Amino acid sequence: MNESPPAPVELAGVTRVYGSRGTAVRALDDVHIAFPAGSWTAVMGPSGSGKSTLLHCAAGLERVTSGSVRIAGNDITGASDAELTRLRRTEIGFAFQTFNLIGSLTAEQNVAMPLRLAGRRPERADVHEVLAAVGLADRRRHRPRELSGGQQQRVAIARAMVTRPAVLFADEPTGALDTKAARDVLHLMRRMVDERGQTTIMVTHDPAAAASADRVVFLRDGRITDRLDRPSTREVAARLADLEA
C-alpha cells in the first residue's frame, strides 16, 4: 500500500511562549494542524489570538518553545539558521502586506532576486513566465514606483512563486490594497491553487479575503477553536464576531 505524501506544512503540539515567569505570554498553546497539499487555508482570529505567530512558526521565521514543525517532510524544529535559510529559499515563498520590493530594481529584477540569493542563475524565461502568470508581462521593466499597489503585490507574489515553493505564506496580502486591487490579488491566488496546485497559508482579518480560501481556521488565545470549509463571507464574519465578543 502506498503511503500518502506528507502535508507540505504540519504543526504538532506547537507552543510558543514569549517572556518568562511572571511576564510569560503563551502566544500559541499546543497547536496541532496540517495544511494539505494544493489547498488554501486562511487563518483568522481576534487581535492577539496568535495567528501571526502561527504563520511565523510554520514558516520557520520563529522558533517554537515546544512541539514540532515539518515543512515538505523536513522537521525544522531543531534546524540551524543556515538550514532554515536554505529551506526558505527553496521550499517557501512569502507575500507580505508591505510588498518589500526593491525600489531601484525593475519588476523582473525583483522577481529574479530569490534565485540569485539561492545561488542560481535566473532564467529569463522562468521570470517572464511567472510575471505573465500574474498578468504583468507588459510591466516587467517597470520599477515599483511606476506600478499601482495591486500591481506591486502581484510582483511580490510572482517573486514568491519563481522558485516553485512547496508552500506560499501570505501575511495580510490585501491589507494595503483598495477593493478592486484586493479582488484581483485574491483571484490570482485562487488560480495559483486551482491551476498550479500551490499550497497557500494566509493570515487575514478580512472575511471576504478568507472566504476565497478552501477553509478558514480560527484562533483564540493561542488555540485553534473552530474551522469552516468553503464558507461565505457572511459565515466568516459571523464566526469572527462570535470570537471577538
UniProtKB/TrEMBL annotation:
SUPFAM superfamilies: P-loop containing nucleoside triphosphate hydrolases
ABC transporter domain segment(s): 9-240
GO terms under cellular component: membrane protein complex; plasma membrane
Cleavable signal peptide: none
Database matches in SMART domains: AAA
Keywords linked to the UniProt accession: ATP-binding, Nucleotide-binding, Transport
Superkingdom assignment: Bacteria
Nucleotide-binding found in the keyword field: yes
Single GO MF descriptor: ATP binding
Record PANTHER family: ABC TRANSPORTER RELATED (PTHR24220:SF685), IMPORT ATP-BINDING PROTEIN (PTHR24220)
Name of the protein in question: Putative ABC transport system ATP-binding protein
Organism name: Glycomyces sambucus
